[in-house]
Amino acid sequence: MEVRAVAKNIRRSPQKVRLVVDQVRGRSVQEALAILSLMPQTAARDVYKVVKSAAANAENNFDLDANALYVLRIYVDEAPTLKRFIERSHGRPAPRLRRGSHITAVVEERALS
Asked: How does residue 111 score in pLDDT terms, banded at 50, 70 and 90?
């Protein structure tokens, strides 16, 4: 059974978050959380929260075994971009795009054989 968790409107660039997400895709939840806790990227904290939330949803809402869970799918979508302007030379405005992300993690129970 697939169980998911979503974090929306995270103020991090999707490009930077995808670099972190690619490291944990397909791994067991315990291994993924260990990797994320040691990564220096600030996006790793946000991904850690989403993976941990998906595991907690599976354990508490669906009575799945926490030790048998693995990250089935994890992906990052683009959130709405905030468009801001800063001054450059001669007082002219220059656009500053503040990008955001939606992080979705899907965990599933792996059949222990």
From this structure: confident
Three-state SS across 47-104?
HHHHHHHHHHHHHHHHCCCHHHEEEEEEEEEEEEEEEEEEECHHHCEEEEEEEEEEEE
- Report d(CA 87, CA 6) in Å as an integer: 36
What span, in angstroms and rounded, lies between the C-alpha atoms of 6 and 103?
Answer: 6
pLDDT of residue 113: 59
Q: Which tens digits make up the pLDDT trace of 3-24?
A: 999 999 999 999 999 999 999 9
Q: Using DSSP, state whether 12 is helix, strand or coil.
A: coil
What are the structural domains, with CATH classification, of the chain? Answer: 3-109 (3.90.470.10)
What are the helix (H) ranges across 39-93?
A: 43-62
